[in-house]
Design brief:
mainly alpha, globular, two-stranded antiparallel sheet, about 75% helix
């Protein structure tokens, strides 16, 4: 591979990592603009649902343009789309959005980096898609050690089940979904699958969010369409989050299609770094970046590099 092509691949992967990393502070900023409190579970789910429904539509449109034909699922693909959506969108982002509402952005960024390691563990031990080698075990040890290091406080282990725990469950769902994507990609168009699962999952979450809001009487704030006219910043953030998922996913998929998986995936270590830096800057969490955080992040990055040296699982991040 020429130096120029390597640079293009690196820049493309970096753009994806930057977009994914920027989602952490953008989501918390979105909560503020939409006047969503951490205890308003159904409004959080609705907010996430609208984002991913829009993201799914954008992915379908971009995929159709790239393929030069409409991306329309076949009759036998709808079941796989729904199963994939259960883990990749509904499960992963319900846990993630709820967890992020109860923890710091830098904490969520670090814990969410476990997606790579959960994908390997699930693919090896539960779905038998690859062999759990010493290198992968070593990488996972580094990764989990980094998260443990971040949660050590003067008062003991500072892991918060309602915040950090839900973000970790989100990472587990991602691990399952990445294995399903790998399995389904052998026979189906992954862009089509992900576009429709985003849209389906987002629609389900939006409907559930509205139903929950009506049942609980949590009608504080204005409906989305009315609110969009009074506060364009809120709408812009929502659209940006939709573009983060759709553009980053499509670009990442193109990079994986045309280049070695290991060459592209190894750049993914920058996502938690970017997420931590942007959260510290835009969420005023710079005081959280202690020596423990930095050392923990180094351990996680080391683990990601180790497991991606000869990675056999094509995983797509959030």
């Amino acid at each position: 591979m020429s130096v120029r092509k390597k640079l293009v691949v690196f820049l493309g992967a970096f753009i994806c990592c930057f977009l994914w990393g920027s989602a952490f502070p953008a989501i918390k900023y979105g909560y503020k603009l939409w006047n969503i409190k951490s205890f308003q579970i159904w409004r959080i789910i609705r907010f996430a649902g609208v984002r991913f429904f829009l993201a799914g539509i954008i992915v379908i449109i971009l995929g159709s343009i790239i393929s030069r034909k409409p991306l329309i699922p076949k009759k036998g693909e709808w079941g796989k789309i729904m199963l994939l959506s259960l883990f990749q969108t509904i499960g992963q982002y319900t846990f993630f959005y709820m967890g992020l509402a109860h923890t710091k952005g830098v904490n969520a960024a670090v814990i969410n980096s476990l997606t790579t390691f959960f994908a390997i563990i699930i693919a090896s031990l539960f779905m038998h898609m690859e062999t759990l080698t010493f290198r992968k075990i070593l990488g996972c040890i580094f990764g989990f050690s980094g998260v443990f290091m971040v949660n050590i406080t003067p008062n003991g282990f500072g892991f918060k089940p309602l915040g950090d725990g839900l973000v970790m469950l989100s990472a587990v769902c991602y691990g399952v979904s990445s294995c399903l994507i790998k399995k389904y990609s052998e026979e189906h168009d992954t862009v089509m699958l992900s576009g429709y699962q985003f849209a389906f999952g987002g629609l389900v979450m939006t409907i559930l969010g509205y139903i929950g809001i009506v049942i609980t009487g949590d009608s504080a704030g204005m409906p989305i369409l009315q609110y969009s006219r009074s506060n364009m910043k809120a709408v812009i953030v929502l659209i940006y989050l939709a573009l983060v998922s759709s553009i980053a996913y499509t670009l990442w998929g193109l990079l994986l299609k045309k280049n070695d998986v290991s060459r592209v995936s190894v750049v993914g270590f920058m996502t938690p770094v970017i997420a931590v830096i942007l959260s510290a800057i835009f969420l005023n969490e710079a005081d959280s970046l202690t020596v423990d955080y930095i050392f923990g992040l180094i351990l996680i990055i080391t683990g990601i590099i180790i497991v991606n040296r000869k990675n056999h699982v094509e995983t797509i991040d959030n």
